[in-house]
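Subject: mismatched residue count in predicted assembly?

I count 542 residues in my input, but I want to confirm that the predicted structure covers every chain. Input:
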Amino acid sequence: MKQATQKKVAQFLAFLLLRVCLYLVLAVLLLFLFDIGKKGGGAISWEFLSQAPRKGMTAGGIFPAIFGTFLVTLITALLAVPLGMCAAIYLNEYARQDRLTRLIRLAIRNLSGVPSIVYGLFGVILFVNIMRFGTSVLSAGLTLGLMTLPWTITASEEALKTVPNSYREGALALGATKWQSIRTNVLPYAVPGMLTGTVLGLARAAGETAPILFTGAAFFLPYLPKSLGDQFMALPYHLYILATQHHQIEQVRPLAYGTALVLIALVLGLNMTAVVIRYRLRRKRR
Amino acid sequence: MSSAATAIKIQARDLDFYYGPVRALKAVNIDCHDRKVTAIIGPSGCGKSTFIRTLNRMNDVIAGTRVSGRILLDGEDINAPDVDVVELRRRVGMVFQKPNPFPKSIYDNIAYGLRINGLRDKRKLEETVERSLRGAALWEEVKDRLDENAFVLSGGQQQRLCIARSLAVEPEVILFDEPCSAIDPIATAKVEDLIENLKKSYTVVIVTHNMQQAARVSDYTAFMMLGELVEFGPTGKIFTAPTHKLTEDYITGRFG
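Triage response: the counts match. Full output below for your records.
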């Protein structure tokens, strides 16, 4: 009897501890969002979202930065999504599971831990200098794409692993080729997970500063990029400037908070998209 | 249970199989007669599933495996380098231990094998779906809900769906890898009736844990142990007058 009570108390304490941890994390996040929302909400207006900065970035909006972030994220996606998915399909479905494959997989996992500034400097050397794309939205997008690849590969591979082997074997046993079994009986069930992981990776890329710092982001541009060879403004870099590099930091602080709010909303939007995609595709499957 | 001489569909000759260094089959010789049911019985780990999976080269997908000896299908070596394994698997269908319907509609499950072979004609597809479902004694139960997801079916129905799915591609041989181990006794009886029917048109090989099942459905029985074939012969003889003491001990339930 006494032992039973003890066990119950222990369970209660364990659950309490876990719950407190969860609330702590949530509290920090909410406090953070609330603070940015309160200080940045006032700056948000149609003008702020649709106009270019004016008067040495002390007035006007951040439209070029929003546009630039969209554009660079699009280029990132065009590189990282198809390449990442294909690499994952190869690694999980085709590659012999030997030491070399394990080594490659380990290397990919490690790449996802490389600091983003290292990718930035690598991008300068590879895309800006060697491939002569110059400091441009293309170079920046490709750099972010490289940085995102390990994430998309890993997420896609995990998604492929969740597809039961019996789907593959069942198809093969009916006379499907390996590719047929993958295309018709594996990918349809892995794609929701692949997309979710991929979009999360893109959301992270959209918020990065270091990889675009030297590869294409501009301090200030009076015009939108007209080609892939142009420089561009980006939300995270713009925020960095407003928050630390501006000559009138105190005056532009509300604009900085507004920019932060827009950036967070954008990343949140992307993450929600991932959730919605997954939910929709999962339901369709049922 | 006739043991009259019939054509032999599949011959395994001195078949060895290795998972890496582990020898899972040791010089196995089994003949599967055309339009008869051959049952493979034996304790867990005796190699019976490994054996049946060599017949449609399903083991190819497992890395580090190796086969030696010969398996002849209609006299031709299925491991010969010029054999198209995809065509082999169309001719030699397989029903797995756990029902494995695809997460598609009932209709699409049956049509799957036809579609991957390039059939697009809607009428032909519909005909074949109906014929296959009838062949698996499932038509009456599902004819009004062909576009429902196959997962709504019960386990036994799912297994018959998998049987129908393999019938659709018109195989010559159907391999059953413990088809009833995951379904209830009533569903098992239905599958057994089905096998009885299927042997009119197909060569059937069934791996089973259940000795009564082997006695009920099969014409020939192979008893395996530790990767070796202990005894092979007409089912009636194996179950009433086994030659080997091991066989007798196993079928009388002294071990296994």
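Chain A touches chain B at residues 96-98, 164, 166-177, 180, 184-185, 189, 285-286 (CB under 8 Å). Marking this ticket as 'not a bug'.
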